[in-house]
Input
Amino acid sequence: MTSDVIDWDNAYRGQGVFEGPPPWNIGEPQPELAALHRAGKFRSDVLDAGCGHAELSLALAADGLTVVGIDLSPTAVAAANKAAQERNLANASFVQADITSFTGYDGRFNTVIDSTLFHSLPIEGRDGYLRSVHRAAASGAAYYILVFAKGAFPAEMEPKPHEVDEAELRAAVSKYWQIDEIRSAFIHANAMAIPDAPFEMPSHGTDEKGRMKFPAFLLSAHKA
Ligand SMILES: C[S@@+](CC[C@H](N)C(=O)[O-])C[C@H]1O[C@@H](n2cnc3c(N)ncnc32)[C@H](O)[C@@H]1O
Output
């Protein structure tokens, strides 16, 4: 499915709108998801949907979980596979595929994690995505989505991620999954340099590492 947000592979090749590495490449898992991992919420096998450079998957694999990451960008998938090899993580594998229509993993995963993928998909891709990951999940599997909340980006920014409000997120996900909780959360990202941008980024505050903290939702659900 063609993206209406950004050319993802270009961004990873340093040829996109950003100067330098993409702002979501923070060199570690998103803190909200790292906290869930520390709390023991993730069970093997894990699907990292839209894994990118896959610091989340790599951290889980280093702790012994078997992880599969799927991403549209061949550049990101190659980087993730290289990192797994360098870190001797034979239990982590990464595959290039479109998450809105992938097949071949029916009933396999006990955990599905979406670390900032949901808002990266075209709105018309959401249903295929939710259906595909539901099919790939085992009965009772847990599902987590970390997604930008409305207002994260300036109204004039175009294109921008498809931020959600709580009702919209609930309506989309509940078609396939049993929702347990939707709560406010943060997405951490490096400062964005978009040359000649005709808008100001809102100041949402920063974390202890100086990264921007964007308003988000963390959704927890399970497969009945
Ligand atoms: C904002 S990045 C997040 C990457 C990673 N999960 C993280 O937390 O750093 C969104 C990712 O979704 C991937 N993506 C976008 N559309 C996709 C699709 N249709 N199928 C698979 N991956 C997709 C992009 O290539 C990108 O790596």
About this structure: Residues 53 and 74 are 11 Å apart (CA to CA). The beta strands are 46-49, 67-71, 92-96, 109-115, 137-148, 178-189, 212-222. The helical segments are 8-12, 31-38, 55-62, 74-86, 126-136, 166-173.
